[in-house]
Write a structure and sequence with these properties.
Layout: H1 2-64, H2 77-108, H3 112-125, H4 128-139, H5 157-181, H6 191-204, H7 212-233, H8 235-257, H9 259-272, H10 275-280, H11 293-317, H12 321-333, H13 360-375, H14 381-384
Helix pairs in contact: 2-3, 2-4, 2-8, 4-8, 5-7, 5-12, 7-12, 8-9, 8-11, 8-12, 9-11, 11-12, 11-13
Length: about 375
């Protein structure tokens, strides 16, 4: 009986131990499974996170590669050289040929109608750079990619507003500087303008004239309106210049020589483009020492200064519109201050911003824009990828 009891006890202990062992194995198995599940979850989380990062990077890369927001992009440099040659050959060749062989004879003739036709042709020739750019784009299958037509005002408010009002303000400041230096040439009564206005009106209205007060009041009202509308009054000619030189030439020069050199060289080229008209005396007259070389040099300097400003606006915004507004405003406001002089001013001094004295505000802004572009140059899509 005792042996049986002891055997039963041993069997129960063995059973108990076996049960405990099975339980331990089960617990270890469950723990291992839980750990495996945890590791799998972590791996899935890391994998999901990695996938999310890859998707975000791909989206960012695709977003950066979109050409709609930039003028500067990636292109084959050999093809770019070909495009530059085509553009410059057409831009200078066509314009200079027409100016030398069609406009010059008409402009130098004594016929009033011929002179008017010459002036009209000068206005039309301003669209040559845009046409040259379009032809170059079509011939090299570039299309209108990175052509600057986006109107991203909400992203570049200050530069758009500068394009609209900036040149008008700078022209006004230049006139103030001129009249501070040449105080004796300031004519608040606008004597010369009133006289020429009455002479013109007398031919039209059978000798009827207006008082100087009426003429000056009407002119000041018109001038105030031009402050707000100048960016649109010469917009067609301005577009012809800017879409050719700033939206096409400058970005291609940038890809070869960098942002700041491109701004300077592009401006110089746009000033040189006017050389035949300077030779005619259209911009600086003919009665000055060193004609016409001095006038051509002056126009190249003026073109460089204004070209830097326009190029900065175009490159920074990726849009052609701010530079078009600036160009149009400058053309409209160019001669307004001369109405308040006794002698019309001096082409090389002022009060028009083509003069070195009246052009000081433009020069200062151009220097600021060059310095800013040198510190923080526009990046091409190649560098952003």
């Amino acid at each position: 009986m005792t042996d049986m009891s002891e055997n039963d006890t041993e069997q129960k202990e063995e059973t108990s131990v076996g049960a405990d062992g099975v339980e331990e194995v089960r617990e270890e198995s469950a723990a291992a499974q839980a750990e495996h599940v945890s590791e799998a979850s972590e791996e899935d989380a890391v994998s999901n996170e990695s996938s999310g990062i890859e998707i975000a990077n791909k989206f960012k890369q695709n977003n950066n590669s979109r050409p709609r927001r930039e003028l500067v992009g990636v292109d084959n440099k050999q093809v770019e050289t070909k495009r530059l040659i085509i553009f410059l050959a057409l831009c200078f060749g066509v314009a200079w040929f027409i100016e030398l062989f069609a406009i010059t004879p008409l402009y130098k003739s004594d016929n009033v109608e011929a002179l008017k036709e010459a002036v009209d042709m000068m206005s039309q020739i301003m669209f040559t750079p845009a046409i040259a750019a379009l032809v170059a784009r079509l011939l090299t299958r570039e299309g209108l990619v990175k052509s600057g037509f986006q109107f991203n005002f909400s992203e570049c408010k200050f530069l758009f507003l500068f394009g609209w009002f900036g040149m008008t303000v700078l022209t006004f400041l230049g006139a103030v500087i001129y009249f501070l230096v040449y105080k004796n040439n300031f004519d608040p009564n606008m004597t010369e303008y009133v006289a020429s206005y009455n002479a013109a009106m007398a031919d039209v209205y059978d000798g009827k004239t207006s008082t100087s007060v009426e003429i000056i009041a009407a002119y000041k009202t018109e001038l105030l309106m031009k402050v707000f509308t100048a960016p649109l009054l010469n917009i067609v000619n301005a577009f012809g210049i800017e879409w050719g030189f700033r939206a096409y030439l400058v970005p291609k020069l940038y890809r070869k020589i960098g942002a700041v050199p491109a701004m300077i060289l592009g401006g110089f080229i746009s000033g040189l483009w006017f050389a035949p008209l300077v030779t005619l005396g259209y911009y600086y007259g003919t009665d000055y020492r060193g004609f016409p070389v001095a006038g051509i040099i002056a126009m190249c300097i003026f073109g460089t200064v204004t070209g830097i400003i326009s190029s900065y606006l175009c490159l920074r915004t990726g849009s052609i519109f701010p530079s078009v507004f600036a160009n149009s405003s400058l053309n409209v406001m160019m001669s307004q201050a001369a109405m308040f002089t006794f002698d019309g001013g001096n082409f090389f001094v002022g009060p028009a911003p083509k003069g070195i004295l009246a052009g000081i505000p433009l020069i200062v802004v151009a220097v600021i824009f060059v310095a800013d572009m040198a510190r923080n140059p526009v990046k091409s899509s190649e560098n952003r990828k």
